[in-house]
Amino acid sequence: MDYKVSVIVPMYKAVRFIKPAVEGLLAQTLKELEVIIVDDCSPDDSLEKCRELYGNHERVQILAQPRNMGPGEARNTGIKAARGEYIAFVDIDDAVLKNAFEEMYNLAKEKSDADVIHSTGMILALDKSDPDSLYDVDEKDWFPITSDRYEVPKEVTVLPDDIGGRYNKWRNHGLHWMVGTKLFRTRFLRENDISFGKIRLSEDMAFCFTALFLAKTYVITPKRYYLYRISNESISRRGYTTQFFRTALYALFNVCPLARETMDRVAYFKNHPESEKGVLDFMIEILEQEFVIPVYQSLGEDAILEDGVFTNLMKEQFGENADYVTYSFFEQHRKYPPTTSSTKLLTVENMIKYRAKVEAAAKEGKA
Fold it and tell me: What is the pLDDT of residues 224-269, one digit of tens each?
């Protein structure tokens, strides 16, 4: 079969989601679609279960990483194996609307084989009963949101070939970097050697940044297709640990080199050093506000230093300058006011409260 879309799904310790995820993707209205499951060395029987269910399915590829390497590297493995004309990425506990890839693929073809199709938002699925499939969530608990800000188009729009304009939109949160809300032309990714960096947080930000500034035809659609699971259970289990803090810091220290690799390939940034600085400042700000500061404040300095994870990372990254960087880091982070990551605010209760507030405001407006 000549596949139009390859959907890459990283898998790690996710037995309960395998069947609803794969069945949902195979039920897409676009039938020339393959599903690529990439197991990231799951410690449970996820891989065995996946092979049992879909090992002989002609539209499913099952790949296994040699060791746990994170979702970015799992997606890279999927990109190499993809047989489709376009590539999409879906997390195994999320889903997409049934017509998503047919509509996005057709739009890409209408727009001269677009390099990227970018959806301006997603649908938060309020998983109150913790079902395996998000299609079983009552649609009244589907909460559409717009991820993009800053002059969001109300109809399909092709971004001008104006790197400065693209930079301004991106810098103002106008082009969100969630990888699941996009469709990428396979040839475009491979010819430009676009892949996920070796970081485990915000790897999609660096990936989508590269795609944005290298794409010739970048198309924006206001339609929302991606169903993002919001579950109190999953949020509460996402506890902060020193290992997670190491992951956040490693991403912080290494996201800038990834961005520089892209900017070195785009003449605009060489001629506009202020924009280059703006990119680095923005990426650091996102990682700090979303991960580093909240985890630092939650754990406290004593816990961070106690098990040696932080100290070892500092020595690994900065060598003989580790003590100075450590001192400077703590001095700086003691100054921040209490901060909560926006991902921690994505709970069922908070979404319901927000929806009630919006509905109440709408009723007042009508009255």
Answer: 999 999 875 543 345 789 999 999 999 999 999 999 999 999 999 9
What tokens were used for 252?
A: 């912080």
Question: How much of the chain is helix, strand and coil, in % rounded to 5?
Answer: 55, 15, 30
**Three-class secondary structure of residue 266 per DSSP:** coil
**E strand residue ranges, 57-132:** 60-64, 86-89, 95-96, 116-119, 121-126
Other Cβ atoms closer than 10 A to 336 = 14
Kindly report, residue by residue over 285-306, the tens digit of the pLDDT: 999 999 999 999 999 999 999 9
Cα–Cα distances in angstroms (integers) from residue 158 to residues 58, 101, 108, 219, in the given order: 35, 19, 11, 4
Instruction: Sheet containing 142-146: give its strands across.
Output: 95-96, 226-230, 121-126, 142-146
CA atoms of 64 and 11, how far apart (whole Å): 9
Q: DSSP assignment of 195-228, as one string?
A: ---S-SSSHHHHHHHHHHHH-SSEEEE----EEE
